[in-house]
């Protein structure tokens, strides 16, 4: 078997810090620079642990930020690894976080471009792309789509997240049952302990947010701040629901009618 050289002996995290370069921003009123995380025009995010988790309400800018980090690592905004382009963007009219990357600076030690950008929303396209690429190379296709949605996700993580590199995961829980989320947590734990993988993940799952050793950040309308798992809205809401489902629902669903 061919010996696969380690990219670096240095431990993760490899991407140490990202910050915005205000001089490169042409218009702070336009997306993505009008997102709350840039309101003070001096955005900076430091990565001090192998696993970083970003939480926040829908629409606060998590995917946009991950797209930009993915672009800094050399990944396409639709997901995939370095050099993969699973989707034809030539006819797209929307702007993405990749434009944001042009106004960010990343500090790496060392620069690592091996790894993967996983996006739940483009899993189907990426899986098709991988099958076709394997067929074109006269190899056996990975065939992630011949499994249930959640089974395909887990097989994908098991196969793709083994090597040294930087892994960006956008809502990886979206097809996973709670039991499968625990499987993913075990995988994340292995990656964390290996010291050779950096994970930057956006999630709405309280289970994944509880990942031991991970550093959590919350995006709100005031910006991006470190937070603790017990302080997240997700944990508090699930705790209140689990401790009194009827009372919780009575309050949540019928309060407007009272
Ligand atoms: N292509 C775009 N053009 C203009 N505005 C956009 C575009 N994409 C997203 N936005 C705006 O940026 C905001 C943040 O979107 P983004 O997808 O990054 O949020 P998110 O935190 O990942 O949300 P979710 O939790 O729902 O995935 C959205 O509310 C939307 O108003």
In this entry the ligands are:
adenosine-5'-triphosphate
Q: So, the CATH homologous superfamily?
A: P-loop containing nucleotide triphosphate hydrolases
The count of strands amounts to 9
What portion of the residues fall into strands of 2 or more residues?
15-25%
H and E order: EEEHHEEHHEHEHEEHH
What is the structural class? alpha/beta
State the helicity in percent bands: 25-40%
Helix count? 8
- For the record, the CATH architecture stands as 3-Layer(aba) Sandwich
Main location: membrane
InterPro entries: AAA+_ATPase, ABC_transporter-like_ATP-bd, ATPase_AAA_core, P-loop_NTPase, Rad50/SbcC_AAA, Siderophore_ABC-ATPase
Domain ABC transporter: 23-246
Membrane topology: Peripheral membrane protein
What this model shows, in words?
By secondary structure, the chain is α/β, with parallel strands linked by helices. The protein has one domain: 3-Layer(aba) Sandwich (Rossmann fold), CATH 3.40.50. The chain is 33% helix and 19% strand. The protein has 8 helices and 9 strands. The strands form 2 sheets. It has a 6-stranded mixed beta sheet, with helices on both faces. The termini are far apart. The mean pLDDT is 89. The protein binds adenosine-5'-triphosphate. Adenosine-5'-triphosphate (ATP) binds next to α1.
